[in-house]
Amino acid sequence: MKSISSFITQSLIGLAILSGTAISTTSVRAEVITGQSGNVRAEISYEQPQEYQYKNVQIKIVREGKTVLDQKLPQDSEYDRPIGALLDENDRDKLPVLDVDGDKEPEVIADFFTGGAHCCTYSLIYRYDAKTKQYKKIRHEWGNGGYRLKDLDKDGLPEFESRDDRFAYAFTAYAASGYPLQIWQYRQGKMIDVTRRYPKLIYNHAFELWQTFLSARKQGDNGKGFLAAYLADKYMLGQGQDGWQKVKQAYKGRDRTRYFADLRKFLRETGYMK
Predict the structure, then answer these.
(1) I need a surface site. Which of 37, 57, 198, 213 has the fewest CB within 10 A?
(2) Are 227 and 178 a contacting pair, CB within 8 Å?
(3) What's the average model confidence in pLDDT over 186-191?
(4) What is the pLDDT of residues 72-119, one digit of tens each?
(5) What is the pTM for the complete model shown?
(6) Beta strand spans in 144-241 (E)
């Protein structure tokens, strides 16, 4: 697994590239993102009348040569735009169409970026319902971090590897925030948090967070954001007590009493502590 700092850097670079595409303001350019798997073909089209403005976003899904879905999508704002395969520079113009739940029917994953320096990304996941012969969708929010599709358990189906974006700005600035690991599976039209099924990945992630904290401390940062995420990972491993001991030994700031109280409250609110 890549380091925490590399993951954050890649996310920011990806979003910056997506945000910085300039076009002529004198004409409207139509863009199309397409993808196909077997007998299912999907496309998203949109217009870009001027820089950072996107309109008339339309999704179309054709199954066995028949158009099953063809509709205009609502946007959070005029900056809201489809981005193809999220954070994959080689597939920016490709719409992910693949079976992610093992029912032999490919899902369509439409990723969007809402604009801004750090925010936000989300996915619309379309699943074919054989009974109604229609596509049903869910929306999943990724926040700043996005996701990567990886077959982590080698069962032939990809997981969504991401991070808990609730930790952004929770105890410090964005650039100094750390994030616990999150792993999701899409099953029967729902996203399921399966992070705790991967203790080795959580352990490696916690180790990287701790190393990032040590590096940040050497550079003069108090490291509160990285310690918070580290402790959340430790709780997912069932090692909360050990995590607290290390955090209390490591953090000597004048606000340590208040910080520890706020951290304990936050971990309860986010479900890491009971």
Answers:
(1) 37
(2) yes
(3) 95
(4) 998 888 888 888 755 455 555 689 999 999 999 999 999 999 877 667
(5) 0.84
(6) 148-150, 159-163, 181-187, 190-193
CA distances from 44 to 81, 152, 209 (A): 10, 29, 37
Q: Could you tell me the two tokens for 175?
A: 């650039």
Residue 87: exposure state from Cβ atoms within 10 A (0-12, 13-18, ≥19): buried
Q: At what angle do helices 199-218 and 4-19 cross, to 10 degrees?
A: 80
Greatest alpha-carbon pair distance for the chain in Å reads 66
Distance CA 234, CA 242 (A): 8
Burial 208-235 (b: 16+ CB within 10 A, else e): bbbebbeebeeeebbbbbbbbbbbbbbb
Q: Rounded distance, CA 79 to CA 48, Å?
A: 10
Measured CA distances, 58 to 10, 55, 92, 241, 250 (Å): 28, 9, 17, 51, 52
Q: Which amino acid is at 207?
A: F
In this prediction, residue 86 carries a pLDDT of 55
